[in-house]
Amino acid sequence: PLVLGIETSCDETGVGIVRGETLLVDAVASSVDEHARFGGVVPEVASRAHLEAMVPTIERASREAGIRLEDVDAVAVTSGPGLAGALLVGVASAKALAVALGKPLYGVNHLAAHVAVDIVEHGPLPEPTMAMLVSGGHSSLLLVPDVTHDIRSLGSTIDDAAGEAFDKVARVLGLPFPGGPYVDRAAREGDAAYIDFPRGLTSRRDMERHRFDFSFSGLKTAVARWVEARERDGQPVPVADVAASFQEAVTDVLTRKAVLACRENGVEDLLIGGGVAANSRLRAMAQERCDAAGIRLRVPRPGLCTDNGAMVASLGAQMVARGRTPSPLDLPADSSMPVSLVQA
Ligand code: ATP
Ligand code: MG
Ligand code: FE
């Protein structure tokens, strides 16, 4: 099926078009520069930017894909979770497009879409797949028997998301927003063993109660304290070493728990998705540890890890291919949609 997907859960206006498991186009307009001076995404600014970018981005996508909108078989849209006003722009646009074209509408879960995007990169998902979703708002381990309707959460962060920790540490180090890519770059010149930062929820006791949960707020605080102490002593802050040591602590915990989740559930395929999956150290460490454990690893290319429309189109195409019932046309935007609900 030819499916157009719309994504507006945060600050990216994404329109992707796929044909079955083939990506035709992934058009993204981001308002990230408008948020940078606030040090975080401002919801009203994001909603307004989506309104302005939506029609031009849909037009650009259909032009670059070389298709006519009349030819799409279905329209898919992120219906949650995300910023309420931002989601509303995407959902209203998708409804209008579906009605105008007389085509079915699928309101899908943003987190499931972060998983489904890898189908256009690496082909059909083994069933089940273990998915680790690490992004600006989420950090979860998901057992995925069927990405179109059965996703089970094994654990998630009990405080900050991994991407949030990257962004906060970047701020402490004086790096721009959003900080993940800057920490990644700075860390390449640093010594990852320079500081032994805490690995949250990995003590023996925590592994009983929070086996597949994560915690990054203690780590973030430890980094801030370490940097403050240095500054108080009038010493220069070794930015690259702090970035590398912080990044090592995050990736160590993430990959350790992901491999354990695979082992204990008898799953041989691990997929990592979400913005933090673009991190070079995470990708390298996950590959090493999966190789050692006999697990096949799949990670989408960095451009498909962060928010985009292709992920929504990819999940929509799976919905159509599997004969799932379309969503109602009065489909709501659900800012706190749980990951267990794949379709609205
Ligand atoms: P969610 O998907 O949970 O709703 P989101 O949509 O804001 O959150 P994404 O766009 O998937 O999140 O990811 C953005 C996050 O990924 C930001 O926190 C950003 O710093 C982080 N990120 C992007 N690239 C990298 C990188 N190379 N290393 C570490 N973090 C990164
Ligand atoms: Mg973003
Ligand atoms: Fe996302």
Automatic annotation (TrEMBL):
<keyword id="KW-0479">Metal-binding</keyword>
<protein>
    <recommendedName>
        <fullName>tRNA N6-adenosine threonylcarbamoyltransferase</fullName>
        <ecNumber>2.3.1.234</ecNumber>
    </recommendedName>
</protein>
<dbReference type="InterPro" id="IPR017861">
    <property type="entry name" value="KAE1/TsaD"/>
</dbReference>
<dbReference type="InterPro" id="IPR022450">
    <property type="entry name" value="TsaD"/>
</dbReference>
<dbReference type="Pfam" id="PF00814">
    <property type="entry name" value="TsaD"/>
</dbReference>
<feature type="binding site">
    <location>
        <position position="114"/>
    </location>
    <ligand>
        <name>Fe cation</name>
    </ligand>
</feature>
<keyword id="KW-0963">Cytoplasm</keyword>
<feature type="binding site">
    <location>
        <position position="110"/>
    </location>
    <ligand>
        <name>Fe cation</name>
    </ligand>
</feature>
<dbReference type="InterPro" id="IPR043129">
    <property type="entry name" value="ATPase_NBD"/>
</dbReference>
<keyword id="KW-0808">Transferase</keyword>
<dbReference type="GO" id="GO:0002949">
    <property type="term" value="P:tRNA threonylcarbamoyladenosine modification"/>
</dbReference>
<dbReference type="GO" id="GO:0061711">
    <property type="term" value="F:tRNA N(6)-L-threonylcarbamoyladenine synthase activity"/>
</dbReference>
<dbReference type="InterPro" id="IPR000905">
    <property type="entry name" value="Gcp-like_dom"/>
</dbReference>
<keyword id="KW-0408">Iron</keyword>
<dbReference type="GO" id="GO:0005737">
    <property type="term" value="C:cytoplasm"/>
</dbReference>
<dbReference type="GO" id="GO:0005506">
    <property type="term" value="F:iron ion binding"/>
</dbReference>
<feature type="binding site">
    <location>
        <position position="307"/>
    </location>
    <ligand>
        <name>Fe cation</name>
    </ligand>
</feature>
<feature type="binding site">
    <location>
        <position position="184"/>
    </location>
    <ligand>
        <name>substrate</name>
    </ligand>
</feature>
<comment type="similarity">
    <text>Belongs to the KAE1 / TsaD family.</text>
</comment>
<dbReference type="InterPro" id="IPR017860">
    <property type="entry name" value="Peptidase_M22_CS"/>
</dbReference>
<keyword id="KW-0012">Acyltransferase</keyword>
<feature type="binding site">
    <location>
        <position position="279"/>
    </location>
    <ligand>
        <name>substrate</name>
    </ligand>
</feature>
<keyword id="KW-0819">tRNA processing</keyword>
<feature type="domain" description="Gcp-like">
    <location>
        <begin position="23"/>
        <end position="313"/>
    </location>
</feature>
<feature type="binding site">
    <location>
        <begin position="133"/>
        <end position="137"/>
    </location>
    <ligand>
        <name>substrate</name>
    </ligand>
</feature>
<comment type="function">
    <text>Required for the formation of a threonylcarbamoyl group on adenosine at position 37 (t(6)A37) in tRNAs that read codons beginning with adenine. Is involved in the transfer of the threonylcarbamoyl moiety of threonylcarbamoyl-AMP (TC-AMP) to the N6 group of A37, together with TsaE and TsaB. TsaD likely plays a direct catalytic role in this reaction.</text>
</comment>
<feature type="binding site">
    <location>
        <position position="180"/>
    </location>
    <ligand>
        <name>substrate</name>
    </ligand>
</feature>
<feature type="binding site">
    <location>
        <position position="167"/>
    </location>
    <ligand>
        <name>substrate</name>
    </ligand>
</feature>
